[in-house]
Amino acid sequence: MKHVSILIPQGDVSVVNIMGSYQVLGAANEQYQRQHRKPLFEIDLVGFGAVGSAKPGAAQIMPTKWWKEVLLTDLIIIPAVHDDPALVIRENQELLQFVTQHYKNGATVSSMCIGAYLLAASGLLNGKNCSVHWQHAPYLQAMFPQVQVKGERLITDQQGIITSGGAYAFTNLLIYLVEKYGGRELAVLISKLFMIDIDRKYQSVYQLFAGQKEHRDETVLQVQEYIENNIGDKFTIDELAQNHNLVRRTLERRFRSATGNSIIEYTQKVRMEAAKINLEKGRKTVSEVMYDCGYTDSKAFRDVFKKCVGLSPLEYRKKYMMEVDKKSSLL
User: Fold this and answer.
1) How is 301-320 classified by DSSP, letter by letter?
2) What kind of fold does domain 218-320 have according to CATH?
3) Closest CA to 124 of 99, 90, 106, 89
4) What totals of helices (H) and strands (E) does the chain contain, helices first?
5) Is 156 within 8 Å of 130 (Cβ atoms)?
6) From CA 201, how far away is CA 15, in angstroms rounded?
7) What's the rounded Cα separation, in Å, for the pair 28 and 30?
8) Which of the 8 DSSP states describes residue 77?
9) Looking at the DSSP assignment, which residues form a beta bridge with residue 130?
10) SS3 60
11) Average pLDDT, the chain
12) CA separation for the pair 323, 201 (Å, rounded)
């Protein structure tokens, strides 16, 4: 039997993450016990510090154990905390101590969504892959440069550290954990009971690319605006550099430093976001969208789209285009 510690950090914690984990793992435990006549999990809600009063409209979670009472645990789950990450880290030093010590003692540690900030603050993510809500990926990377942030991945699992993407992707992490400890058959059963898609690997299909413009390099901002306003045009990096009286190497260095992307990567993301919007509207064929985004090679367009989005252009169009007849059938 594995002991599970679902942590209750200080701050505006995600009640959904905590109680959803308790419910799904509890159901897995019940089903496993029916099949094998022994429990799979012992689950505790682990508290840190005093339990404060909940915000208006929010639920309050009472721990089943305090952190000092947990002498040995096999799996730790860190939920999202919806406060400023620096504040969350300052207010949860005992939690970081708990996580670090039990990881050294052999526990697996997992984080949900922006719970990754706390996990990263422990130092256990240094040099390892990490998933987080795609919107927070650049901020987590900037705050913890030693972490290998994989904003497109739904789940990462490396050396006893498991992370998951944002929002309700935590349900996919729970199915992953059920399979890890209880086997494939149990995971499939629980996924059916809770109607959770199994084997999802990417959150990139949900990403919205709005550009990284929270910097003060005016030249880079001008280049970004040019790329965004000339999506269908052909241009080279040398031309962009000449237009701003820079050598190519200097422009590339400044662009990556300001945005976290190379000029080629940024251009691809801008074009793929435009392609997604046009595919969702359904007014143009995939080929027409391809040409509008500056591509003439269908294979190159398809490869870049799938790399950025996780689906082929045709798959994306079928999944997200709402045709008139489809709308009427739902009325």
Assistant:
1) HHHHHHHHHSS-HHHHHHHH
2) Arc Repressor Mutant, subunit A (1.10.10)
3) 99
4) 15, 9
5) yes
6) 24
7) 5
8) E
9) 149
10) coil
11) 91
12) 27
**Nearest to 205, CA basis, from 145, 250, 144, 151:** 151
**Helix axes of 15-36 and 184-193: crossing angle, nearest 10 degrees:** 130
Gap between the Cα atoms of 330 and 265, Å rounded: 39
Distance CA 58, CA 128 (A): 34
Contacts of 35 (CB under 8 A, 6+ apart): 186
Burial label for 299, CB within 10 Å (0-12, 13-18, 19+), is exposed
5, with CB counted inside 10 A (0-12, 13-18, 19+), is buried
pTM for the structure as a whole = 0.75
What is residue 5's DSSP assignment? E
What is the mean pLDDT, run by run of 10 residues, along the chain of 331 residues? 97 96 97 95 92 64 96 98 96 97 98 97 97 91 94 92 92 96 96 91 74 87 94 94 95 92 93 92 92 94 92 91 50 43
Q: Using an 8 Å Cβ cutoff, are 258 and 138 in contact?
A: no
Amino acid (one-letter) located at 209: F
Reading the block at residue 73, the tokens are 């645990």
- Judge: domain 2-206, CATH 3.40.50.880: yes
Is residue 187 a contact partner of residue 179, using CB atoms and an 8 Å limit?
yes
Q: What is the pLDDT of residues 236-289, one digit of tens each?
A: 999 999 999 999 999 999 999 998 889 999 999 999 999 999 999 888 999 999
Cα(7)–Cα(17) distance, integer angstroms = 10
CA–CA separation, 242 and 237 (whole Å): 9
Q: Which two tokens stand for residue 317?
A: 């169009």
Q: For the chain, which residues make up each domain, given as ranges? A: 2-206, 218-320
